[in-house]
């Protein structure tokens, strides 16, 4: 297989690319290496990937309509995994145009590449944020997700709709994965675990929103990668049971589906912080803050469909996962 992985120098893209390279696949990695966060962290990830003989890198912005076709012409990938995106719920309140450029225009360029060079499977990252203020827990893919409350989640919901259109019109088999609060080694500096660790080790207080009562389905990055790898050779087929009079939001008469990737359990934010404090051997000074615009009180993935389709079995507890992150952080930063 030749697998095009976009966002290969990013958090999840790096872990997926390394897993694929370790099992002998050819990976064409695409990343703009922008300065949304410290480029040195991206450079360190990329250096590891470039140590593999079957890795080739393209420094391209997904939104570059002139250069993206050449990437597909050259790579002719058997599979495409689109993980490049402008991430972050809160940043979408400050820089909305960035989300349209990267997540909408960029994804259109991916779809056009798949139209010109049809892959066996297009896999792309969506987000649990598309469920918005959905009150029924756990969040299930067969429930309608039609009320996003941030531009970030709206852009990801747009990706799901765009992928469906290309599956219907051009037969591009597409699986969209709704990720739930991914964390782990090599994580982004704008993510809570990274920020908390940095602040605690440097004697600064941490800001805890929602008065610490928020609950999240914290999902370790290796469990996310397990799901992505399991899906590669299991592209969706048209659902023979799909009924246009009672449409299922997760499947289609086209080769398209939506799946959740999460641990399938809620953990209160304060418990998450307690685990981090225990691993660091230090107590956090906490500034309790109200909920921010775009936040929801709780998330939890219903992974029943993912288990059935992919034999997906996430197994990493927050105690193990947070511990591995802290070990990586101390080693990488020498603290």
In short:
By secondary structure, the protein is an alpha/beta fold. It has helices at 11-22, 39-49, 68-75, 96-116, 151-170, 192-201, 221-232, 269-280, 304-310, 318-333; strands at 2-6, 26-30, 55-58, 79-82, 121-127, 174-179, 182-183, 206-208, 215-216, 219-220, 256-261, 267-268, 286-288.
Task: Describe the overall structure.
The chain is α/β, with parallel strands linked by helices and 335 residues long. It has one domain: NAD(P)-binding Rossmann-like Domain (Rossmann fold), CATH 3.40.50.720. The mean pLDDT is 95. The chain has helices at 11-22, 39-49, 68-75, 96-116, 151-170, 192-201, 221-232, 269-280, 304-310, 318-333, and strands at residues 2-6, 26-30, 55-58, 79-82, 121-127, 174-179, 182-183, 206-208, 215-216, 219-220, 256-261, 267-268, 286-288. The chain starts with a strand and ends with a helix. The protein contains ten helices and 13 strands.
Keywords:
Rossmann fold; two-stranded parallel sheet; 7-stranded parallel β-sheet; 335 residues; alpha/beta; 15% strand
Which SSEs are present, and which pair or pack?
Layout lengths: L1 E5 L4 H12 L3 E5 L8 H11 L5 E4 L9 H8 L3 E4 L13 H21 L4 E7 L23 H20 L3 E6 L2 E2 L8 H10 L4 E3 L6 E2 L2 E2 H12 L23 E6 L5 E2 H12 L5 E3 L15 H7 L7 H16 L2
Parallel strand pairs: 1-2, 1-4, 2-3, 4-5, 5-6, 6-11, 7-10, 8-13
Antiparallel strand pairs: 9-12
Structural class: alpha/beta
Helix content: 25-40%
Shape: globular
For CATH, the homologous superfamily is named as NAD(P)-binding Rossmann-like Domain
Q: What's the CATH class, please?
A: Alpha Beta
Looking at the overall shape, the CATH architecture is 3-Layer(aba) Sandwich
